[in-house]
Amino acid sequence: MSFLQPVGPVIDLGVNIDHIATVRNARGTVYPDPLRAALLAEQAGADLITLHLREDRRHIKDADVLAMRPQLATRMNLEAAVTQEMIDFACQVRPQDVCLVPERREEVTTEGGLDVIRYFKEVETAVKQLKGEGIRVSLFIDADEQQIAAAQQTGATVIELHTGRYAEAEGAEALHELERIKVGVAAGVKHGLVVNAGHGLHYTNVQPVAAIRDIAELNIGHAIVAHALFAGWENAVREMKAIMVAARLGVSLGAQ
């Protein structure tokens, strides 16, 4: 056994393929194919495939989700806004996981966590409908104990902590944000939740987050797509997974 092939689960990598679709849509072609990217990512060590079906369909489209669902060998993690259209579509597709996220049309990327307290009834209703179809539900939230407690009360069993502020910070501020994530992870565990994390993570800043023992899964997309331009898609996936596993096991690989 090597640290790259440990016995049993260490930490899962969800590869977000949204920006494969972004490149495709930029020229209105049928390539690069998000399905092919997903299957190759699985072969390279991805533990699940994450994709966000946005209201404006700026990258992933309905047809991508429908084509991918029966083909994946791992898990599909479908990110979706808390709207009846998206919840009904998710119930039609029935991915293994649905992560409910906040969404604004004008944002470039998701800018923060879902405000579960403010929209509790809407989130609770969505969680109930999804769970009724046998779908595991995750809520994408900030590392705030009140939001985490509210997430547990909706009936969701998983949270994904938003790591964007940590990813954008430097120096002492980054250390402060990392500590917030650690406190959030502990709060999630205290409330009996599975704790995942993601947003803005890349090949250097991922290490301290991956080292947090109780994080089950990291979802990473843009950095892997960007690195693949130079390293190749499968290599980019393998390198990210290796860095994550090494960090969890206390082995530093450094930037690849």
Can you walk me through this structure?
With 256 residues, the protein is of the alpha/beta class. 45% of the residues lie in helices and 16% in strands. The protein has eleven helices and eight strands. It has an eight-stranded parallel β-barrel with strand order 1-2-3-4-5-6-7-8, surrounded by seven helices. Helix 2 (34-43) crosses helix 11 and helix 10 (222-231) crosses helix 11. The longest helix is centred in the C-terminal third of the chain and has 20 residues, at 171-190. The model has no long low-confidence stretch (mean pLDDT 93).
Q: Helices and strands in order, then pairings?
A:
Elements lengths: L11 E5 L1 H10 L6 H10 L4 E5 L9 H7 L7 E5 L3 H10 L3 E4 L19 H13 L3 E6 L3 H9 L4 E5 L1 H5 L2 H20 L3 E5 L7 H5 L4 E6 L1 H10 L1 H16 L8
Parallel strand pairs: 1-2, 1-8, 2-3, 3-4, 4-5, 5-6, 6-7, 7-8
Helix pairs in contact: 2-11, 6-8, 10-11
Q: Could you give the order of strands across the largest sheet?
A: 1-2-3-4-5-6-7-8
Helix content: 40-55%
State the separation between the terminal residues, measured CA to CA. Answer: 22 Å
Rg measurement, Å? 17 Å
SS content category: alpha/beta
User: What is the residue-averaged pLDDT?
Assistant: 93
Strand content: 15-25%
Please, how many helices?
11
Shape: globular
Which tags fit this structure?
transferase; alpha/beta; 45% helix; 11 helices; pyridoxine biosynthesis; PyrdxlP_synth_PdxJ; EC 2.6.99.2; 256 residues; Pyridoxine 5'-phosphate synthase
